[in-house]
Amino acid sequence: MKRNERIVRILVVGLGVCLLGTSACKEHKPKREVSETEVSSAVESPKLIVLAGQSNMVGGGNRSNTDLPESYPNITYINQGFSSGLKRPGSHSFGPEQGIIQQLKKKFPKQEFVVYKYAVGGSSLYDWLPEQDSAKVAEMGHPKFGSLYDSLLKYLPKQLEGLILQPDAFLWIQGETDARFPQAGEEYHEGFKNLLQRFRKDGGNPGVPVIIGQVNPPAERYPAALAVMEAQSKMTSALPNVKMVSLEGISKREDNLHYNTPGQIEVGKRLGKMLNSILE
């Protein structure tokens, strides 16, 4: 039975309770139609969880090597993930959303969620900034990506089955590309702060909680790795309601950059536990 049908039945039963109660309730009363507004207000809107970032948020886990279910009751997953070549990952590919969803189901088995992911592999923070600097995008980003911030908002789901959606959490894994450039590392903090402030304004929830999965690319190949990591860490005190989750010690592929199949699940598990603590 669909959600709205369940609630209509509950409301109709509730309106008819007095017919079975005291004598005072036995007076004939005109039958009243139940409006769609009443139905919507009687149903708690699904919680909207937004995931964004680059390749480790897109994910490279292989579903065929796991026993992950194809879908989860009460959770709608919307995947707008792309590789650096702007191609959609294969049907067996998954990212940290799987671990996140598992944690949500464990903590909130009856709550409905919409998990929306917009992530692009290889993207720099310059690609994500609401006000892009075309010269810096050309030097340290990817002009072919266009404005990822505009796309994030464009595909942000606004309704589900007539119920209004607003972001209840924003989860971010990104920074490895910026860690290649000392200038990008130096500018990461202010740029990321601007991005979060704008999303809180434009996304419809000025106080939306933010969870950062702190990147950890190998410093010997990424000269600004420590600068990006420090910038992400500082964000927890620069803005209210921002949390950071360490992703250290999670298994990766041979490139020591991208998480492997069990690693993707563990990344999601860590983020999901932090998310649960915020939502409870």
Structure description:
The chain starts with a helix and ends with a helix. Helix 4 (97-107) crosses helix 10 (261-279). The protein is built from 10 helices and 10 strands. It is α/β, with parallel strands linked by helices and 280 residues long. It has helices at residues 3-15, 36-42, 55-58, 97-107, 125-128, 134-140, 148-154, 182-202, 225-238, 261-279, and strands spanning 47-53, 61-62, 75-82, 93-94, 113-120, 159-160, 163-164, 167-173, 210-214, 242-246. Helix content is 38%, strand content 17%. The strands form 3 sheets. The chain has a 6-stranded parallel sheet, sandwiched between helices. A two-stranded antiparallel ribbon has the order 2-4. Residues 47-274 form the Sialate O-acetylesterase domain.
CATH topology of the largest domain: Rossmann fold
* Spatial separation of the terminal alpha carbons: 27 Å
CATH class of the largest domain: Alpha Beta
Helix/sheet category: alpha/beta
Going by CATH, the architecture of the largest domain would be 3-Layer(aba) Sandwich
Element pattern in H and E = HHEHEEEHEHHHEEEHEHEH
User: How many runs of DSSP E, i.e. beta strands?
Assistant: 10
Task: Using brief descriptors, characterize the structure shown.
single chain, 280 residues, alpha/beta, Rossmann fold, 2 domains, 6-stranded parallel sheet, two-stranded antiparallel sheet, 10 strands, 38% helix, globular
Break the fold down into its secondary structure elements and pairings:
Elements: H1 3-15, H2 36-42, E1 47-53, H3 55-58, E2 61-62, E3 75-82, E4 93-94, H4 97-107, E5 113-120, H5 125-128, H6 134-140, H7 148-154, E6 159-160, E7 163-164, E8 167-173, H8 182-202, E9 210-214, H9 225-238, E10 242-246, H10 261-279
Parallel strand pairs: 1-5, 1-8, 3-5, 8-9, 9-10
Antiparallel strand pairs: 2-4, 6-7
Helix pairs in contact: 4-10, 8-9
